[in-house]
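Try this one yourself first.
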Protein backbone atom coordinates (compact mmCIF):
# COMPACT_ATOMS: atom_id res chain seq x y z
CA UNK A 1 0.00 0.00 0.00
CA UNK A 2 1.22 3.46 -0.84
CA UNK A 3 2.09 5.94 1.88
CA UNK A 4 -0.74 8.32 0.95
CA UNK A 5 -4.08 7.21 -0.46
CA UNK A 6 -6.88 9.42 -1.71
CA UNK A 7 -9.88 7.24 -2.46
CA UNK A 8 -12.93 8.53 -4.33
CA UNK A 9 -12.41 11.96 -2.79
CA UNK A 10 -15.31 14.24 -3.72
CA UNK A 11 -16.23 17.84 -2.95
CA UNK A 12 -19.30 19.78 -4.06
CA UNK A 13 -20.08 23.47 -3.75
CA UNK A 14 -23.80 23.76 -4.52
CA UNK A 15 -24.24 22.49 -8.06
CA UNK A 16 -20.49 22.57 -8.80
CA UNK A 17 -18.60 19.32 -8.28
CA UNK A 18 -15.19 20.82 -7.58
CA UNK A 19 -13.53 17.41 -7.16
CA UNK A 20 -15.16 14.29 -8.53
CA UNK A 21 -14.12 10.86 -7.15
CA UNK A 22 -10.41 11.54 -7.18
CA UNK A 23 -8.15 8.52 -6.66
CA UNK A 24 -4.44 8.95 -6.10
CA UNK A 25 -1.64 7.10 -4.31
CA UNK A 26 1.59 8.85 -3.36
CA UNK A 27 4.69 6.99 -2.17
CA UNK A 28 6.97 8.12 0.61
CA UNK A 29 9.42 10.60 -0.89
CA UNK A 30 7.43 11.04 -4.07
CA UNK A 31 6.49 14.40 -5.57
CA UNK A 32 3.19 14.49 -7.44
CA UNK A 33 2.22 17.66 -9.31
CA UNK A 34 -1.45 18.50 -9.78
CA UNK A 35 -1.79 20.31 -13.05
CA UNK A 36 -4.84 21.84 -14.66
CA UNK A 37 -6.52 25.09 -15.70
CA UNK A 38 -8.06 27.59 -13.31
CA UNK A 39 -11.06 26.21 -11.43
CA UNK A 40 -10.32 22.54 -12.09
CA UNK A 41 -10.21 21.67 -8.36
CA UNK A 42 -6.52 21.78 -7.43
CA UNK A 43 -6.77 24.03 -4.39
CA UNK A 44 -9.93 22.28 -3.20
CA UNK A 45 -8.07 18.95 -3.26
CA UNK A 46 -5.20 20.43 -1.28
CA UNK A 47 -7.56 22.01 1.25
CA UNK A 48 -9.30 18.67 1.81
CA UNK A 49 -5.92 17.02 2.24
CA UNK A 50 -4.85 19.68 4.75
CA UNK A 51 -8.11 19.32 6.69
CA UNK A 52 -9.57 22.77 5.91
CA UNK A 53 -12.51 21.26 4.02
CA UNK A 54 -14.57 18.17 4.81
CA UNK A 55 -15.42 15.63 2.14
CA UNK A 56 -18.68 14.93 0.32
CA UNK A 57 -17.37 11.48 -0.52
CA UNK A 58 -14.36 9.23 -0.08
CA UNK A 59 -11.48 8.95 2.30
CA UNK A 60 -7.88 10.15 2.74
CA UNK A 61 -5.24 8.00 4.45
CA UNK A 62 -1.64 8.77 5.35
CA UNK A 63 0.63 6.01 6.61
CA UNK A 64 -2.31 3.59 7.16
CA UNK A 65 -4.06 6.20 9.33
CA UNK A 66 -7.39 7.61 8.17
CA UNK A 67 -7.23 11.42 8.34
CA UNK A 68 -10.50 12.30 6.55
CA UNK A 69 -13.48 10.08 5.96
CA UNK A 70 -16.95 10.89 4.71
CA UNK A 71 -18.20 7.44 5.71
CA UNK A 72 -17.31 7.71 9.38
CA UNK A 73 -17.42 11.53 9.52
CA UNK A 74 -13.93 11.49 10.94
CA UNK A 75 -11.64 14.47 10.41
CA UNK A 76 -8.26 14.79 12.04
CA UNK A 77 -7.84 18.53 12.81
CA UNK A 78 -5.39 20.33 10.48
CA UNK A 79 -2.98 21.11 13.34
CA UNK A 80 -2.66 17.39 14.12
CA UNK A 81 -1.81 16.37 10.54
CA UNK A 82 1.82 17.45 10.66
CA UNK A 83 1.81 18.78 7.11
CA UNK A 84 3.99 21.61 5.87
CA UNK A 85 2.13 24.09 3.70
CA UNK A 86 3.21 26.86 1.36
CA UNK A 87 0.74 28.91 -0.61
CA UNK A 88 0.91 31.34 -3.49
CA UNK A 89 0.70 34.56 -1.48
CA UNK A 90 3.74 35.41 0.61
CA UNK A 91 2.27 34.39 3.94
CA UNK A 92 4.97 35.77 6.20
CA UNK A 93 4.43 37.81 9.32
CA UNK A 94 6.00 41.22 8.63
CA UNK A 95 6.29 42.25 12.29
CA UNK A 96 8.41 39.18 13.13
CA UNK A 97 12.01 38.58 12.06
CA UNK A 98 12.85 35.82 9.61
CA UNK A 99 13.94 33.62 12.53
CA UNK A 100 10.77 34.34 14.49
CA UNK A 101 8.63 33.51 11.46
CA UNK A 102 10.20 30.07 11.28
CA UNK A 103 10.26 29.46 15.04
CA UNK A 104 6.67 30.57 15.70
CA UNK A 105 4.85 27.36 14.65
CA UNK A 106 7.30 25.36 16.77
CA UNK A 107 6.58 27.53 19.80
CA UNK A 108 2.85 27.05 19.22
CA UNK A 109 3.51 23.30 19.34
CA UNK A 110 5.13 23.91 22.74
CA UNK A 111 8.43 22.30 21.81
CA UNK A 112 11.30 22.82 24.29
CA UNK A 113 13.25 26.02 23.66
CA UNK A 114 16.46 24.27 22.60
CA UNK A 115 14.52 22.11 20.14
CA UNK A 116 12.79 25.19 18.66
CA UNK A 117 16.14 26.85 18.11
CA UNK A 118 17.79 23.75 16.65
CA UNK A 119 14.98 23.10 14.18
CA UNK A 120 14.52 26.73 13.15
CA UNK A 121 18.24 27.16 12.53
CA UNK A 122 18.43 23.94 10.57
CA UNK A 123 15.52 25.01 8.34
CA UNK A 124 17.09 28.45 7.85
CA UNK A 125 20.38 26.90 6.80
CA UNK A 126 18.73 24.56 4.32
CA UNK A 127 16.90 27.45 2.70
CA UNK A 128 19.94 29.78 2.64
CA UNK A 129 18.35 32.24 5.04
CA UNK A 130 20.60 31.84 8.04
CA UNK A 131 22.55 35.03 7.32
CA UNK A 132 19.32 37.12 7.19
CA UNK A 133 17.70 35.48 10.23
CA UNK A 134 17.45 38.79 12.13
CA UNK A 135 16.07 40.77 9.18
CA UNK A 136 12.45 41.58 8.59
CA UNK A 137 10.96 39.45 5.79
CA UNK A 138 9.79 42.77 4.33
CA UNK A 139 13.42 43.47 3.41
CA UNK A 140 13.62 40.28 1.32
CA UNK A 141 12.72 39.80 -2.34
CA UNK A 142 9.65 37.79 -3.35
CA UNK A 143 11.85 34.70 -3.64
CA UNK A 144 13.27 35.39 -0.19
CA UNK A 145 9.82 35.70 1.36
CA UNK A 146 8.73 32.46 -0.23
CA UNK A 147 11.87 30.84 1.13
CA UNK A 148 10.81 31.94 4.61
CA UNK A 149 7.45 30.24 4.08
CA UNK A 150 9.29 27.14 2.92
CA UNK A 151 11.63 27.18 5.94
CA UNK A 152 8.64 27.53 8.24
CA UNK A 153 7.01 24.49 6.65
CA UNK A 154 10.23 22.46 6.84
CA UNK A 155 10.91 23.32 10.48
CA UNK A 156 7.93 21.35 11.73
CA UNK A 157 9.53 18.25 10.11
CA UNK A 158 6.36 17.50 8.21
CA UNK A 159 5.26 14.08 7.00
CA UNK A 160 3.88 15.66 3.85
CA UNK A 161 4.45 18.98 2.08
CA UNK A 162 1.48 20.64 0.40
CA UNK A 163 2.47 23.40 -1.98
CA UNK A 164 -0.15 25.49 -3.80
CA UNK A 165 1.39 27.52 -6.63
CA UNK A 166 4.24 28.56 -4.34
CA UNK A 167 6.29 30.10 -7.14
CA UNK A 168 3.68 31.77 -9.32
CA UNK A 169 4.16 35.24 -7.85
CA UNK A 170 7.93 35.16 -8.44
CA UNK A 171 9.63 36.46 -11.52
CA UNK A 172 10.74 33.78 -14.02
CA UNK A 173 14.40 33.82 -13.00
CA UNK A 174 13.64 33.15 -9.31
CA UNK A 175 10.99 30.65 -10.23
CA UNK A 176 13.50 28.38 -11.96
CA UNK A 177 16.01 28.80 -9.17
CA UNK A 178 13.44 27.88 -6.50
CA UNK A 179 12.37 24.80 -8.45
CA UNK A 180 15.83 23.37 -7.97
CA UNK A 181 15.87 24.32 -4.32
CA UNK A 182 12.54 22.62 -3.65
CA UNK A 183 13.75 19.54 -5.51
CA UNK A 184 16.96 19.46 -3.47
CA UNK A 185 15.07 19.79 -0.20
CA UNK A 186 12.75 16.97 -1.22
CA UNK A 187 15.71 14.69 -1.90
CA UNK A 188 17.32 15.59 1.39
CA UNK A 189 14.24 15.13 3.58
CA UNK A 190 12.47 12.46 1.53
CA UNK A 191 9.09 14.21 1.91
CA UNK A 192 6.03 13.25 0.01
CA UNK A 193 4.92 16.36 -1.86
CA UNK A 194 1.65 17.30 -3.46
CA UNK A 195 2.49 20.29 -5.63
CA UNK A 196 -0.24 22.35 -7.25
CA UNK A 197 0.54 24.37 -10.34
CA UNK A 198 -0.94 25.37 -13.66
CA UNK A 199 2.53 25.77 -15.14
CA UNK A 200 3.33 22.66 -17.12
CA UNK A 201 7.08 23.19 -17.25
CA UNK A 202 7.15 23.56 -13.47
CA UNK A 203 5.23 20.30 -13.11
CA UNK A 204 7.62 18.57 -15.52
CA UNK A 205 10.74 19.87 -13.78
CA UNK A 206 9.71 19.07 -10.24
CA UNK A 207 7.58 16.01 -10.09
CA UNK A 208 7.97 12.25 -10.24
CA UNK A 209 4.41 12.00 -11.49
CA UNK A 210 1.87 14.48 -12.82
CA UNK A 211 -1.88 14.38 -12.32
CA UNK A 212 -3.81 16.32 -14.95
CA UNK A 213 -7.23 17.52 -13.88
CA UNK A 214 -10.13 19.11 -15.70
CA UNK A 215 -13.39 20.30 -14.15
CA UNK A 216 -12.80 18.22 -11.05
CA UNK A 217 -12.11 15.02 -12.97
CA UNK A 218 -8.70 13.34 -13.23
CA UNK A 219 -7.68 13.01 -16.88
CA UNK A 220 -4.39 11.17 -16.50
CA UNK A 221 -1.76 10.28 -13.91
CA UNK A 222 1.73 9.41 -15.12
CA UNK A 223 5.40 10.31 -15.23
CA UNK A 224 6.21 13.57 -17.04
CA UNK A 225 7.44 11.46 -19.95
CA UNK A 226 4.21 9.44 -20.13
CA UNK A 227 2.06 12.56 -19.92
CA UNK A 228 4.05 14.30 -22.65
CA UNK A 229 4.64 11.31 -24.89
CA UNK A 230 1.33 9.47 -24.57
CA UNK A 231 -1.41 11.91 -23.55
CA UNK A 232 -4.57 9.99 -22.61
CA UNK A 233 -6.89 12.34 -24.45
CA UNK A 234 -7.05 15.50 -26.51
CA UNK A 235 -7.32 17.74 -23.45
CA UNK A 236 -4.05 16.41 -21.97
CA UNK A 237 -2.32 16.64 -25.34
CA UNK A 238 -3.35 20.26 -25.69
CA UNK A 239 -2.55 21.21 -22.11
CA UNK A 240 1.00 19.83 -22.16
CA UNK A 241 3.29 21.40 -24.72
CA UNK A 242 2.52 22.94 -28.09
CA UNK A 243 -0.01 21.13 -30.22
CA UNK A 244 -1.91 21.13 -33.48
CA UNK A 245 -5.05 19.25 -34.37
CA UNK A 246 -6.46 18.34 -37.76
CA UNK A 247 -9.99 17.11 -38.10
CA UNK A 248 -9.85 14.25 -40.60
CA UNK A 249 -12.44 11.94 -42.14
CA UNK A 250 -11.49 8.25 -42.21
CA UNK A 251 -12.83 6.31 -45.18
CA UNK A 252 -11.73 3.15 -46.98
CA UNK A 253 -8.35 3.02 -45.23
CA UNK A 254 -7.56 6.63 -46.14
CA UNK A 255 -7.79 9.96 -44.39
CA UNK A 256 -9.38 13.03 -45.93
CA UNK A 257 -8.44 16.53 -44.97
CA UNK A 258 -8.46 19.89 -46.76
CA UNK A 259 -10.35 18.41 -49.73
CA UNK A 260 -7.71 15.74 -50.49
CA UNK A 261 -7.27 12.08 -49.57
CA UNK A 262 -4.10 10.49 -48.15
CA UNK A 263 -2.77 7.23 -46.76
CA UNK A 264 -2.69 7.91 -42.99
CA UNK A 265 0.81 8.41 -41.53
CA UNK A 266 0.10 5.65 -39.01
CA UNK A 267 -3.06 3.57 -38.95
CA UNK A 268 -5.67 5.12 -36.62
CA UNK A 269 -7.30 2.89 -33.96
CA UNK A 270 -10.10 0.68 -35.32
CA UNK A 271 -12.78 2.27 -33.11
CA UNK A 272 -12.06 5.67 -34.65
CA UNK A 273 -12.14 4.24 -38.18
CA UNK A 274 -15.62 2.88 -37.36
CA UNK A 275 -16.66 6.38 -36.26
CA UNK A 276 -15.54 7.70 -39.66
CA UNK A 277 -13.40 10.55 -38.35
CA UNK A 278 -10.85 11.62 -35.76
CA UNK A 279 -8.52 14.35 -34.55
CA UNK A 280 -5.00 13.91 -35.82
CA UNK A 281 -2.76 15.47 -33.15
CA UNK A 282 0.90 16.41 -33.45
CA UNK A 283 3.57 18.49 -31.75
CA UNK A 284 5.19 21.21 -33.92
CA UNK A 285 8.56 19.44 -33.83
CA UNK A 286 7.00 16.15 -34.96
CA UNK A 287 5.90 17.55 -38.32
CA UNK A 288 8.35 17.90 -41.20
CA UNK A 289 8.15 19.60 -44.58
CA UNK A 290 8.42 17.63 -47.76
CA UNK A 291 8.63 19.02 -51.28
CA UNK A 292 6.60 16.19 -52.78
CA UNK A 293 3.79 14.14 -51.29
CA UNK A 294 2.63 14.62 -47.70
CA UNK A 295 -0.52 16.47 -46.66
CA UNK A 296 -0.74 19.51 -48.92
CA UNK A 297 -0.48 22.83 -47.15
CA UNK A 298 0.40 26.51 -47.59
CA UNK A 299 2.72 28.54 -45.37
CA UNK A 300 0.83 31.42 -43.72
CA UNK A 301 3.48 32.84 -41.40
CA UNK A 302 7.06 32.16 -40.53
CA UNK A 303 8.98 33.43 -37.49
CA UNK A 304 12.54 32.99 -36.34
CA UNK A 305 12.52 32.03 -32.65
CA UNK A 306 16.23 31.60 -32.06
CA UNK A 307 16.88 27.85 -32.13
CA UNK A 308 13.78 27.05 -34.16
CA UNK A 309 11.88 28.34 -37.15
CA UNK A 310 8.19 28.56 -36.28
CA UNK A 311 5.60 28.15 -39.04
CA UNK A 312 1.81 28.55 -39.21
CA UNK A 313 0.62 26.42 -42.09
CA UNK A 314 -2.86 26.15 -43.58
CA UNK A 315 -4.32 22.72 -44.32
CA UNK A 316 -7.76 23.37 -45.82
CA UNK A 317 -9.27 25.82 -43.34
CA UNK A 318 -7.30 24.46 -40.38
CA UNK A 319 -4.01 25.85 -39.11
CA UNK A 320 -1.05 23.68 -38.13
CA UNK A 321 2.05 24.76 -36.26
CA UNK A 322 5.40 23.40 -37.44
CA UNK A 323 8.83 23.99 -35.91
CA UNK A 324 12.02 23.03 -37.68
CA UNK A 325 15.68 23.55 -36.97
CA UNK A 326 16.73 27.09 -37.86
CA UNK A 327 19.34 25.56 -40.14
CA UNK A 328 16.69 24.06 -42.45
CA UNK A 329 15.90 26.53 -45.23
CA UNK A 330 12.21 25.48 -45.26
CA UNK A 331 9.44 26.89 -47.47
CA UNK A 332 8.71 30.61 -47.76
CA UNK A 333 5.52 32.43 -46.76
CA UNK A 334 2.82 31.80 -49.36
CA UNK A 335 4.59 28.73 -50.72
CA UNK A 336 2.79 25.40 -51.16
CA UNK A 337 4.38 22.48 -49.32
CA UNK A 338 3.72 18.98 -48.00
CA UNK A 339 3.55 17.97 -44.32
CA UNK A 340 4.79 14.65 -42.96
CA UNK A 341 3.38 13.67 -39.56
CA UNK A 342 6.20 11.75 -37.95
CA UNK A 343 4.43 10.85 -34.72
CA UNK A 344 0.69 11.31 -35.09
CA UNK A 345 -1.72 10.62 -32.22
CA UNK A 346 -5.43 10.02 -32.79
CA UNK A 347 -8.30 11.15 -30.59
CA UNK A 348 -12.08 10.84 -30.97
CA UNK A 349 -13.83 13.83 -32.54
CA UNK A 350 -16.09 14.00 -29.46
CA UNK A 351 -13.14 15.15 -27.32
N1 LIG B 1 -15.62 28.00 -1.05
C1 LIG B 1 -16.15 27.81 -2.24
N2 LIG B 1 -17.46 28.06 -2.48
C2 LIG B 1 -18.01 27.84 -3.69
N3 LIG B 1 -17.33 27.38 -4.75
C3 LIG B 1 -16.03 27.11 -4.60
C4 LIG B 1 -15.37 27.31 -3.34
N4 LIG B 1 -14.06 26.97 -3.49
C5 LIG B 1 -13.92 26.56 -4.78
N5 LIG B 1 -15.09 26.65 -5.44
C6 LIG B 1 -15.32 26.24 -6.85
O1 LIG B 1 -14.77 24.95 -7.01
C7 LIG B 1 -14.11 24.83 -8.27
C8 LIG B 1 -12.66 24.44 -8.06
O2 LIG B 1 -11.98 25.54 -7.45
P1 LIG B 1 -10.45 25.46 -7.03
O3 LIG B 1 -10.16 26.70 -6.27
O4 LIG B 1 -10.18 24.19 -6.35
O5 LIG B 1 -9.72 25.50 -8.44
P2 LIG B 1 -8.16 25.59 -8.79
O6 LIG B 1 -7.86 24.45 -9.69
O7 LIG B 1 -7.37 25.73 -7.54
O8 LIG B 1 -8.09 26.95 -9.65
P3 LIG B 1 -6.95 28.08 -9.73
O9 LIG B 1 -5.92 27.58 -10.72
O10 LIG B 1 -7.67 29.27 -10.26
O11 LIG B 1 -6.39 28.29 -8.35
C9 LIG B 1 -14.31 26.16 -8.97
O12 LIG B 1 -15.44 26.04 -9.82
C10 LIG B 1 -14.56 27.11 -7.83
O13 LIG B 1 -15.35 28.20 -8.26
MG1 LIG C 1 -6.09 27.24 -6.77
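Now uncover the answer:
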Amino acid sequence: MAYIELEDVTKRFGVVTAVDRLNLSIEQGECVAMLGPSGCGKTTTLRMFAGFEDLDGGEIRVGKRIISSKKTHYYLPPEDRNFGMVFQAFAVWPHLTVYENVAFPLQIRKLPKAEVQARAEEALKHTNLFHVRDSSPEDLSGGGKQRVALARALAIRPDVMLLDEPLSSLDPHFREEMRFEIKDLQRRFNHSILYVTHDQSEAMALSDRILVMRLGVVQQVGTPLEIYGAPANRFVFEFIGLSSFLQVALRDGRMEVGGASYAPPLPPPAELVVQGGAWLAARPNEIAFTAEGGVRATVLRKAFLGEVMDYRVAVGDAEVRVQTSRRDPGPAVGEACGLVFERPRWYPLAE
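Discussion: Residues 13, 16, 18, 36, 38-44, 198 surround adenosine-5'-triphosphate (ligand 1) (CB under 6 Å). The longest strand covers residues 16-26.
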